[in-house]
Specification:
Blueprint: H1 28-35, E1 55-58, E2 66-72, E3 75-81, E4 85-86, E5 98-105, H2 121-134, E6 146-156, H3 161-175, E7 185-192, E8 195-198, H4 202-208, E9 219-227, E10 232-241, H5 244-307
Parallel strand pairs: 5-6
Antiparallel strand pairs: 1-2, 2-3, 3-6, 4-6, 7-8, 7-9, 9-10
Helix pairs in contact: 2-3
GO molecular function, one term: RNA binding
Subcellular location: Cytoplasm; Nucleus
Family: Belongs to the RNase PH family.
């Protein structure tokens, strides 16, 4: 990606000054106590089983075949999908089409450190995870030996960026009229001890992947992508250490949350179809008006010619 020379980017290895303050040097128990209050309410006012409000729309990028924008409060993601193109530098014929996914963080997106311009290990891992989640959803047998390009740009990261990227990619694929078996939805869950944080923020994710001071405590992060209509799990990604009972309970919670997202995506797609029909009617009406005006002009010219 080209550098932006219009602003001062700063050194790529720069670290914010607040990284050395007392807020960043707190212990595991101090950070855990600050996540929720005595009434079980999180910092942003949500309960443990409550997800953030979802805002989504399509047609964000005019150059792309399909595009989508997903916003989960401070987590903002843009996805663009382009037309299939022939796979370059490939000798063997591929019966299934391939997906090329690229996830990129904006330099100013992460609150803890500045992101470099060159792709790092986290961006490459997210790109692979996005591709694996989307492959079971897309009908790849319909475009053999072709490649579908999917680009995700994370404008702001405040937790659950992979789930937001999967939701944005699924909406962008539907907006681009790419054949799919089902609409894909995803959700994340952070496990800290015996507590499960649905749709975690960046601070909750950071504490979930930290090593607890005692062994045998469930801690980690789970992201699950689901095809709700087919009731199939497209991808399941776990970071951390959890027992079987915790994973089974988390799977049930994530499946319910993914099913809650589906009506919002369907509503957006239905509104797009309705708007396209209205635009088509408006274009047909304007075409008829122009044709009527042209016919009237022709009749006027014929009258003038006959009179002359």
């Amino acid at each position: 990606m080209p550098l932006d020379y219009r602003r001062f980017n700063g050194p790529e290895d720069s670290i914010p000054y607040n990284y050395y303050t007392k807020e960043y040097l707190k212990s595991y128990h101090e950070l855990h106590r600050e996540l929720i209050d005595e009434n079980g309410v999180r910092k942003d006012g949500r309960t443990l089983d409550e997800a953030r409000s979802l805002f989504a729309r399509t047609d964000m990028i005019s150059q792309a075949k399909g595009s989508a924008y997903i916003e989960l409060k401070k987590t903002k993601v843009v996805c663009s999908v382009f037309d299939p193109r022939e796979i370059m530098h490939q000798n063997e014929f591929s019966a299934l089409g391939q997906l090329f996914c690229e996830v990129k963080f904006a330099p100013f997106s992460c609150p803890r450190q500045r992101r470099p311009h060159a792709p790092d290990a986290e961006e490459k891992a997210l790109s692979v995870a996005l591709r694996k989640a989307l492959e079971p959803t897309v009908c790849r047998h319909l475009f053999p030996n072709y490649q579908l390009d999917i680009f995700v740009y994370i404008l702001e990261h405040d937790g659950a960026c992979l789930a937001a990227a999967i939701n944005a990619a699924g909406l962008a694929l539907a907006d681009a009229a790419v054949p799919m078996y089902d609409i894909i939805t995803a959700c994340s869950l952070a496990v800290i001890g015996d507590q499960m944080f649905v749709d975690p923020t960046e601070a909750e994710e950071n504490l979930a992947i930290m090593n607890p001071e005692k062994d045998g405590i469930n801690n980690g992060l789970i992201t699950m992508a689901v095809m709700p209509e087919l009731r199939q799990i497209s991808d399941f990604r776990q970071i951390g250490s959890m027992d079987v009972n915790c994973i089974m309970k988390a799977t049930e919670v994530l499946q319910k949350e993914c099913e809650k997202i589906l009506p919002n995506i369907q509503q957006i797609l239905v509104l797009n179809v309705v708007n396209s029909f209205e635009q088509q009617k408006q274009l047909e009406k304007e075409a008829k008006e122009r044709e009527a005006a042209l016919n009237a002009k022709m009749e006027e010219w014929k009258t003038l010619l006959n009179a002359g």
